[in-house]
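COMPLEX REQUEST
Ligand: guanosine-5'-diphosphate
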Amino acid sequence: MALDGLRSGIFAALSALKGKRKLDEGELSEMVLNIKKSLLEADFNVRQTKEISERLEQRMRDEEPRPGITLQTHALNILYTELVRILGKPREIHPHGQTILMVGLYGQGKTTTTAKLAEWWRRRHGMKVAVIEADSHRPGAYAQLQQLLADTPTTVYGEPDEKDALTIVRNGIAAVGDADLVIIGTAGRDRLDDELQVELENIHKVANATERFLVIDAQVGQAAGPVAANFHDLVDITGVIVTKLDGTARGGGALSTVATTGAPIVFIGEGEKVGDLELFESDRFISRLLGMGDIQGLIDLAPDDLDAEEAQRIAERLMSGRFSLQDMDQQMEMMSRIGTVDRIMSHMPAGMFGLGGMTPRQKKEMQTNLDRFRVIMDSMTADEKNEPTLLKQERIRRVARGSGATEKEVRALLAQWNKSRKMMKGMRGDRQMRKKMKDMMGSLDDSEFPM
Ligand SMILES: Nc1nc2c(ncn2[C@@H]2O[C@H](COP(=O)(O)OP(=O)(O)O)[C@@H](O)[C@H]2O)c(=O)[nH]1
Ligand SMILES: [Mg+2]
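STATUS: Structure written out below.
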């Protein structure tokens, strides 16, 4: 996910708290200093970093962890609230009947994001979406958009030979009249110069758009703040989309400075493909970042052929942290239906399946192991799957023979299960986290939660 570096920096800083009941002055300032370094490396600005670290230090001094909560989680919870505060309040969008005007500088990802949004709402709301490409400066823009949406029923309107953007917008709106949602792409420049200002103001008047979304590349870092403020003055931005968060470790700069302009971040882009879009809500984003899990995000990943209820059920089940081999088997099946290990894991609580700190290589291995493990489990009895400790030497040999695997592979599966189970047990003591999970997930039995 975005800001992986910050995540591991924070985890490393907090690992110093493990098993401690109290910090001495030296330990406290070292932990805060390490958090500060991680924030600066993620490009949070100096003032914001100072604010977060000072509040963390103060609150670690003033607030006692509640009973049953480790010092480590106490610090994590403080960081969570401080980061959510810096990133601002989320904004809900109701797409029906809206006309969205997409604006931004050149090369920031406007055209790509226009296609991503069209697909986002078409897939999730079954809406009839139309897009109008009104970039009359860049010759290939219309073709680019057509290509991105080639296999979809979305109407793509453009006039590649028309030089006047206003004409395209007028004709386009008339042509796509029956769509539930219209998204209009515009031209960019290297900077917001007079010419672009006039063009955007005119399009803004003619289109009478209900939403104005600014698209901004995370790689511009803290410079995103002033850019957002300028566009905000011009067309009254209702939402910002920060793109290319997959390509920079320093995305904290764009995210945090945009938040200070008062224009809410509504989505983030994490790749070049049409599906690489995520809803941005600061609390959910930070929850994922800090390894607390994000059930809604998991549901959003569900494939097209799952209805909403089933997606919800699967996501809850995935997060429930039950842990017989049978459960592990079902969870693997669900994971393979939802998507890649990598994307799923970014929404799960850290430590679930013992995968909190997986390297890309380990994730890839896990992906290949999934099928292998399932074949092995097919050769186990129901009792063995419910109580894997039954599997000693003799039975392991039998299972290996039955599934065409080696004994070593069977043992690897058991080791994986054992590791995951321990990890979950270790996290069980934490009531507040457990409550958070529970609140996110509705009403499952307390004892089923890994945290
Ligand atoms: N890695 C990555 N690339 C992106 C993302 N969004 C857009 N791009 C790429 O950025 C480049 C410029 O995007 P484009 O949509 O043409 O920008 P525009 O000039 O603002 O319309 C293209 O190569 C896109 O594939 C993203 O979220 N991640
Ligand atoms: Mg473009």
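REMARKS: The chain has 20 helices and eight strands. The longest strand covers residues 211-217.
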